[in-house]
Amino acid sequence: CQDFTIYFKAELATSLMRLLPFPRARVFCSLDPQFSVLSEWELEKLLVEFKQTEKSHSRGERTYSVIAVHIKASRKWDTRVGDILVTFCMFTMGLGTFAMGVSEQELGNRLQFAVTLMLADVASLQLLVQQLPSIPYWSEMDFYMYSCFFYLFLITCWSSIAGMFASSFQNADWYARIFFLVLWFLTNVIFVVRAYIVYHQERASLDYTEAQLKRFYQSRRSVNDRTTIHCNFTLNDVEEQQEDDNLLFSGYKSTQRRGVSHEWGNPDNMLLFM
Predict the structure, then answer these.
(1) What residues form the membrane-spanning segments (predicted)?
(2) Do 101 and 16 share a structural domain?
(3) pTM of the predicted model over 0.85
């Protein structure tokens, strides 16, 4: 799930001007997705917050009224998860349940079978990675796909070791099969439980406010990418540009932890509309 926020900050202090909702039921903000090209995303809801800035972040200890419009969106995941789970479960279960001998006559077929499944796993992994969105961190599905690949790699290594010491490992291969079956079962159970928890946490974040989102993403890997982009414009900027109907103002990422998007005043002074 993603949260895209638009801020409207008053230029005058709250002692002179304060932004408030309409006293009558009207449409304050609407989002029309009919011309959107974000086919992988589903726009869920809008959250509108009426807030005040923190006094400590103003030189004159003034507070300013702010309206924050949160656009909540969720990714369409059903098809991707189904493709990944079915494909990698079949690869790992196929190599973890089929029993083959470790004699010199059968060792070559056993290693050939293991290496073939590993190559098929790598090919499927590369194909799925190209279809998935590019993100700067590992998702839960990335951990699952690479854990399946590591599982196949362990079985291939064990097949080589069991073939080299076939006379010494007469019963060890049977115990190894039980071990890998238990490992396969635990890996998938842990992933399903973990995916269920993460799914409900992400769905709950669709109702989070600014302060709740900060606590939610505080320990996440993508917290460094959540830097606000500010866009300021003054009369000096207008005078420097050509005299026509088009005016351009560039935004930039904030380098200091200040401004409307970081700290807020007393939560009791906030109004939330969904």
Answers:
(1) 81-99, 149-168, 174-197
(2) no
(3) no
CA distance 126 to 141: 13
Q: How many residues does the chain have?
A: 274
Distance CA 156, CA 71 (A): 48
CATH number of the domain enclosing 148: 1.20.58.390
Q: Is 218 part of a structural domain of the chain? A: no
Residue 228 domain-assigned (yes or no) = no
Are both 137 and 180 inside the same structural domain?
yes
Scan for tokens 């990944």, then name that residue: 84
In a domain, 161, yes or no: yes
Cβ contacts of residue 45 below 8 Å, gap of 6+? Answer: 72, 206, 274
- The rounded distance, in Å, linking the Cα atoms of 268 and 274 is 17
Query: For residue 155, what are the domain limits?
Result: 78-203
Distance, CA of 20 to CA of 271 (rounded, Å): 9
The token pair at 247 is 């005016």
What are the C-alpha distances in Å from 46 to residues 43, 169, 212?
9, 63, 16
Q: Are residues 64 and 96 in the same domain?
A: no
Same domain as 91, residue 114 = yes
Q: 265 in a domain, yes or no?
A: yes
Q: How far apart are the C-alpha atoms of 167 and 164, rounded to whole Å?
A: 9
- pLDDT 10s digit of each residue in the chain, 274 long? 777 778 888 878 877 877 777 766 666 667 777 766 666 777 777 778 887 877 766 666 778 888 888 888 777 777 677 777 777 777 777 666 665 666 666 667 777 777 777 787 777 777 777 777 677 777 788 888 888 888 888 888 887 777 676 666 667 777 887 888 888 888 888 988 988 888 888 787 777 777 777 777 665 545 445 556 666 655 555 555 555 555 555 555 555 443 343 444 444 445 555 5
